[in-house]
Amino acid sequence: MHCLDCYSGGRQTPAIGVCQQCGSAVCGEHSQLGEQFLTCTKPVSRTHFVDPPVRRLLCLRCTQAHEAYASCCPASANTIRT
Predict the structure, then answer these.
(1) 32 burial class (0-12, 13-18, 19+ CB within 10 angstroms)?
(2) What is the mean pLDDT of each run of 10 residues along the chain (82 residues)?
(3) Which of 4, 5, 17, 19 has the fewest CB atoms within 10 Å, i.e. is most exposed?
(4) CA dist 23 to 15, 39, 46, 51, 77, Å?
């Protein structure tokens, strides 16, 4: 499998993984490895973050979308760190 972004630019670069958001194949240059905290709801609707966080591989476009969402709605976007 080859990186979608490299292929769109005319190159064939082997992919190192798949974006967990959109499913496109990504190479090391076009990916971002981050963390995502799993959560559970405790009594009185209190969100509890489970430690340690899981790894999350995203393409650069999805990383930018998550960052834009976090700047727009910071209270809802605190479970993903890149």
Answers:
(1) middle
(2) 95 97 96 89 82 92 90 65 50
(3) 17
(4) 12, 23, 31, 26, 21
